[in-house]
Amino acid sequence: MILSATLSKPTGKVEEILGKKYERVKIRFKGGTASPYFAEFFTDKQSFHKNFSEAELEEFLRSNIGQSFKNCVERTEDKEITFLANKRGEVRRLEKALAAKDGVKAAYVKPLSATACKAKTAGGSGAALKFSQAQNGGAFNRSKNYIIQEGTRVPFLQALGVMTDAGKVVAAKYDKFRQVNRFLELLDDVLPSVLQARSQAQEGAAFGVNQNSLQAQEGGRPIEPLQILDFGSGKSYLTFAVQYFWESVKKIPCQITGVDLKEDVIKSCSDLAARLDIKNINFVCGDIAKYSGKNPDIVITLHACDVATDYALKFAVDKKAKAILSVPCCQKEINSQLGKSSNALFAPLLRHGILRERFSALMTDAVRADLLEARGYKVQVLEFIDMEGTPKNLMIRAVLKNESAGGTCSGACGQSARDLLTAFGVKQTLADLLGDGL
Fold it and tell me: Is the overall model pTM greater than 0.70, yes or no?
């Protein structure tokens, strides 16, 4: 089976075929069932990521060896196979045994046309492109203990095209299935703290701090449902997943509100909730920066773009949300300011666009984490999903330690964040909103 492949020396057709002027493509086997291959596409300044299934990898190599790239080096378990294309479209195949003894030379085969080479790669070179579950050491047979298990019919996942009617995960949607489960795992971790905070906040409340159940009655009255607010809810995979998790898995009453700017998305999600007869989800079209509503127990933001994340965090802090799960995206604010920085000390870090972009994102989230800690939250910065799924894979997870102190600040509150911003001469929206800006 192919363990890795690197395509290099782009032809003049690379942009026409692949959409960008890629300089090379690196592919490696990472395991998994639906998309076991992870590919990085490199331009001169950026990199892009994509996951391939076995069939997609075969098709990609067939379509691009000798067409988009002149060179391709594949590594299998025991061979290194190199494809070399010339200007006439002829492709030469060089094969070398990796475990060969000293003195054994690489063997050239007769030069082939690009068309013949593609056909040979697709069919005749089965060792290079085809592999079985047995060859994979059983990697395809390992099943993760997900909160939502494949084979369980989940109406919202079926309606969103992630599952078939039989409960099987659609291959092209497996990454989304993993993302949903990973989010629920991270949410499940903070459940005891949230329920404990609810118990302490409500005098005489009969909340049991039990992860699997919640008392349905409080002195003969219904208990107030947990309030969940999802800022930038989008297509609402996670909104519906959280509802399913609370109601069907944990048996905990909840009320969930999804907020998004796009009217068509809000209508689509509202229609889906009605079609599935889900009563405790509502969707609101509005700007996060201007939103006002009931105090939430949990605030969720998944890929709220740039400063939208800051407004969501400010709302959560002001309302003393008991838990925050935020996966930021598009941290452009500091990046744009660093680009104008004249501080020579940081010049090597800021000179290259891709380094400046990544540093800006890390700096932005470091400031956010520090400011939340200063407001009485226990903060963790976690890997949400593998980098292969998306480079925007960091989650800021915050749990309120003391509700009486939540949102308040005194003394050296946020000083670390201020010092960091001062060192680079930049401003950051959450710091400004909370009064900790420069």
Answer: no
